[in-house]
């Protein structure tokens, strides 16, 4: 899995601005599903989490950290019009593409250290497959910064690759963008979040199969405690 790509190196990520989806689809082509399938599955899980905590009488402010091209944003906005969605990334050229494609989402760039938002600003913050690009020595600082912009009682959702799944390892090792990725186990991530001062955390494993029918999505949830899904998510709350 190599060394660690510096998450703050925006040029590294801007370099993939035009080939991002192509590179990922090539890496996962043997699975029989494209990137869009996996994006939609994560959107469904995220929307379920939001549905469980959102007050439907007022807007719900959400931040996507490391949002990239904003590919998940149309799915989120189409199903929940009360979400006030913000996206932030270190790659300015990528953010320009996201802004062009999603004119109803508010985008900003940042330096990878301090988010350009005030304290206690968001109801929910999420990051999808970002942590494995953050050097392990900097992850505690990263999560503390996410906590800073969450409102008291706000929720953090982290989606990550599962290093216990051999197919996931094959995909990561064959994807140029992930050549220096350092994956993190769900159990280690939950411990880190508690160490950063989050009140509680729980996690689920997802994507046990690459099929989209209702039965296989139901099966995914049935198997969610077994640590062999291709990816996982962790939900934590700010006290």
Automatic annotation (TrEMBL):
A GO biological process held by the record: methylation
Single GO molecular function: methyltransferase activity
Residue ranges annotated for the Methyltransferase type domain, each copy included: 63-158
Pfam families: Methyltransf_11
Keywords for the protein's UniProt record, in alphabetical order: Methyltransferase, Transferase
Protein name stated in the entry: Class I SAM-dependent methyltransferase
Record organism: Spartinivicinus poritis
């Amino acid at each position: 899995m190599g060394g660690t790509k510096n998450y703050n190196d925006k040029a590294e990520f801007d370099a993939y601005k035009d080939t991002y989806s192509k590179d990922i689809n090539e890496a996962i082509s043997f699975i029989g599903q494209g990137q869009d399938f996996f994006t939609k599955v994560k959107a469904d899980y995220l929307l379920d989490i939001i549905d469980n905590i959102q007050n439907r009488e007022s807007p719900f402010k959400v931040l996507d950290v490391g949002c990239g091209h904003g590919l998940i944003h149309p799915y989120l906005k189409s199903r929940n019009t009360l979400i006030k969605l913000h996206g932030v990334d270190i790659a300015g050229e990528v953010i320009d593409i996201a802004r062009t494609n999603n004119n109803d989402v508010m985008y900003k760039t940042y330096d990878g250290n301090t988010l350009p938002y005030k304290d206690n600003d968001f109801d929910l913050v999420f990051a999808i497959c970002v942590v494995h690009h953050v050097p392990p020595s900097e992850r505690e600082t990263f999560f503390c910064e996410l906590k800073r912009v969450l409102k008291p009682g706000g929720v953090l959702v982290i989606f990550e690759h599962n290093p216990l799944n051999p197919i996931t390892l094959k995909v990561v090792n064959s994807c140029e963008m992930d050549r220096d990725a350092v994956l993190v186990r769900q159990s280690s991530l939950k411990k880190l979040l508690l160490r950063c001062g989050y009140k509680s955390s729980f996690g689920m494993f997802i994507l046990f199969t690459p099929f989209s029918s209702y039965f296989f999505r139901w099966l995914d949830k049935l198997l969610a405690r077994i640590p062999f899904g291709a990816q996982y998510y962790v939900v934590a709350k700010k006290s």
